[in-house]
Design goal:
This protein is α/β, with parallel strands linked by helices. Helices cover 51% and strands 16% of the residues. The radius of gyration is 16 Å and the shape is globular. Bound molecules: D-ribose. D-ribose binds next to helix 3.
């Protein structure tokens, strides 16, 4: 069963509750890493937690919700191995799975209505990666990640 880590800040909390209620019966295993109310919190705390767990293979996919979806994606994409996509339309939901093999979906609770967010999430969860030429492109992103990590290591040795 696909294991999904979900997290939000206060701006995405309401949408997270909606999605969990609407999607809990699908054959996925959901783990909610907070936050737990609309009290103001810092989105990087939740993005880092979920992104690191997905990158470590503890979860197959992650879903992160904040006011815009943007801060969550900016943060999550700093973690090597993470391909986080902010999606607010159904075409991109399908394309970012088929072409980018995105492993984290981010959305903004102040941007999308719950009905649209549910539609986007279902499509994103169900669409497989196409591979082929897209795998070649992901390899280039992975090579960039390795180059950045190696240059950091070289820098720390100086
Ligand atoms: C919080 O006010 C807001 O900045 C946050 O939810 C998110 O939209 C950041 O990108």
């Amino acid at each position: 069963m696909m294991r999904i880590a979900i997290g939000s800040d206060h701006g995405g909390y309401g949408l997270k509750q909606e999605l969990l209620a609407r999607l809990k019966d699908l054959p996925y295993e959901w783990t909610d890493f907070g936050c737990d109310s609309e009290e103001s919190v810092d989105y990087p705390d939740y993005a880092i937690e979920v992104a690191q767990r997905v990158a470590a293979g503890e979860f197959d996919r992650g879903i992160l919700l904040c006011g815009t979806g943007l801060g969550m994606a900016i943060t999550a994409n700093k973690v090597p191995g993470i391909r986080a996509a902010t999606v607010h339309d159904t075409f991109s939901a399908q394309a970012t799975r088929a072409h980018n093999d995105s492993n984290i979906l981010t959305m903004g609770g102040r941007v999308v209505e719950p009905d649209r967010a549910e539609q986007i999430t279902r499509i994103w969860l169900e669409t497989p990666f196409e591979g082929g030429r897209h795998a070649r492109r992901l390899k280039k992103i992975e090579m960039l990640e390795h180059a950045v990590m190696d240059s950091k290591k070289a820098g720390s040795a100086l």
